[in-house]
Amino acid sequence: MGKHKTPMLDELEKGPWPSFVSDIKQQAEKGKQALKDAPDDLLGVMELSYKDKVTHWKHGGIVGVFGYGGGVIGRYCDQPEKFPGVAHFHTMRVNQPASKFYSTKFLRDLCNLWERYGSGLTNMHGSTGDIIFLGTTTDNLERVFYDMTHELNQDLGGSGSNLRTPSCCVGLARCEWACYDTEEACHELTMEYQDELHRPAFPYKFKFKFDGCPNGCVAAIARADMSVIGTWKDDIRIDQAAVKAYVGGEIKPNGGAHAGKDWGKFDIVEEVVRLCPTGCMSWDGSTLKINNRECTRCMHCLNVMPRALRPGTETGASILFGAKAPILEGAQLSTLTIPFIRMEPPFEELKELVNKVWDWWMEEGKNRERLGELIQRESFQKFLEIMELSPDPRMVSEPRSNPYIFWKEEEVEGGWTRDIKDFRAKHQR
Amino acid sequence: MTDEEAKKAILDTLGGKSGAKTKFYLKDFYKIVPDMKPRDVKNLVNKMVGEGLLEYWSSGSTTLIGLKGAGKQHREED
After folding, report:
1. Do residue B55 and residue A160 have CB atoms under 8 angstroms apart?
2. Domain A237-310 is in which class?
3. Given CB 3.0 to 4.6 Å as the disulfide criterion, which of A85, A110, A157, A291 pairs with A165?
4. Who contacts A97 (Cβ-Cβ below 8 Å, separation ≥6)?
5. How do residues A14-31 score in pLDDT, each as one tens digit?
6. Predicted confidence band at A404 (pLDDT cuts at 50, 70, 90)?
7. Is A72 in Cβ contact with B58 (below 8 Å)?
8. Which residue of chain A comes nearest to B47, CA vs CA?
């Protein structure tokens, strides 16, 4: 039995799934954390919020560590007498290792550090990808920061109007579909833009995300202001013998992922060819053909038959700009801007793009306006001018629903002026 | 405009504001020192935070900047 009665939270422990309530109770019982009452009082204030149906957290604050303008978020409880253990409950965002590779020693060290100075409660990981340390007091912030940077060689992540902690998928480390080294790119840009990561520079948040292929395991297209998504330029590699083995049932489709139930014999036409969104595949009973010019990289066929189909060998990435989660006008996916770019260290071409975009957004972006909203407000045409790019049909998702590209007078031979008599001679009213 | 002049302009403007507003967006500082580039303003503001003249306020999603010690929340957080 904890410090507070929590009948509503206790309900959340009854399902078959892991419960965060059980985790917090476990930390309270363990009792090794510096803020002794924090886990119990956190449960208490949450139960009160469930009862009152309002939050009891005050939003934001002036806390931080010296030299940084991000990575620490002030949190205060508006019922400090009832719940003194969480009266001050600041969050720290810690830059996660690329692809979230950890040794168990490092995880233990992180947990020990946070028990030494905080509540012992973590969120592995926040939506942006950071390791989140939940709950400490102002006087502990510099101590955590010192030990974290000196003993664990780890840095704070981004928050506020900063570059947010870049994140990447597992990439070439473990994935056969990765079209570039996502970890290398993520690390390189993190190091290059340390100033923007730690010091507020922008009208609002800015996110880079690196997906190694269009499967999009870090959902770059949905969440990043600049999405870097692996792709290939040449043809999908086909092993026709392996295709036949899938059709004959010798190899299970989807890597055996749906083997728990009998779905019947694998039907390549129904399950692959007819599901191709651009209809660019055909199967004549012995050979699989792909019209690669029409392929939009949906990845379905590669996912179903990974041993038969592989991405091409001329690999790189597509760069898209302007995604955001629903804030003002609903969710917005990022827009394809650079169809193909080689992804080789030190990624100079990529950095040039970043600098152009930031100069424009810092100058023209309104307060709390994401890049995607600025592109919407000022037009995609204006964005292309800033990026010094020519319009390309691949930037248009579908005909006549995206904004048109409007010609300017200086771009049209002869301009807008015309001889009306000459025109009428050829065209009656 | 030198850095020292820019600093003075920022402190004078923020100190001279009447009413309840004590926190400002970074873009508000661009208007105070229109001759400086946005990145230089950002660097100057950061330097002034380091010197204890200004302070950052963060909601978690957005950062605002104000004179150190100004505003209601500062007293609550001490």
Report:
1. no
2. alpha beta
3. A157
4. none
5. 999 999 999 999 999 999
6. low
7. yes
8. A67
Is A320:A332 a contact under the CB 8 Å cutoff? no
Tell which CATH classification among 3.30.70.2500, 3.40.190.10, 3.20.20.140, 1.10.3730.10 matches the domain A7-150. Answer: 3.30.70.2500
Give residue B20's identity as a one-letter amino acid code: A
Q: How many CB pairs under 8 A join A and B?
A: 84
Residue of A157, A156, A119 lying closest to A37 (CA atoms) = A119
| Range with the poorest average pLDDT among A272-286, B18-32, B35-49 | B18-32
**What is the CATH T-level fold of the domain B3-77, as seen in this structure?**
Arc Repressor Mutant, subunit A (1.10.10)
Per-residue pLDDT reduced to its tens digit, A226-276: 999 999 999 999 999 999 999 999 999 999 998 788 888 999 999 999 999
Smallest CA-to-CA distance from A319 within A403, A395, A256 is with A395
Q: Report the pLDDT value the prediction gives residue B21, as an integer from 0 to 100.
A: 83
**CA–CA separation, A33 and A112 (whole Å):** 9
Partner residue facing A362 (CB), from B38, B57, B63: B38
Q: Is 70 exceeded by the pLDDT of residue A48?
A: yes
Residue A76 reports pLDDT greater than 90: yes
Homologous superfamily (CATH) for A167-233+314-410: Sulfite Reductase Hemoprotein, domain 1 (3.30.413.10)
Chain A touched by B72 (CB under 8 Å): no
Q: Which of A57, A78, A130, A161 to mutate to test the interface with B (most CBs of B within 10 A)?
A: A161
A324 touches A377 (CB < 8 A): no
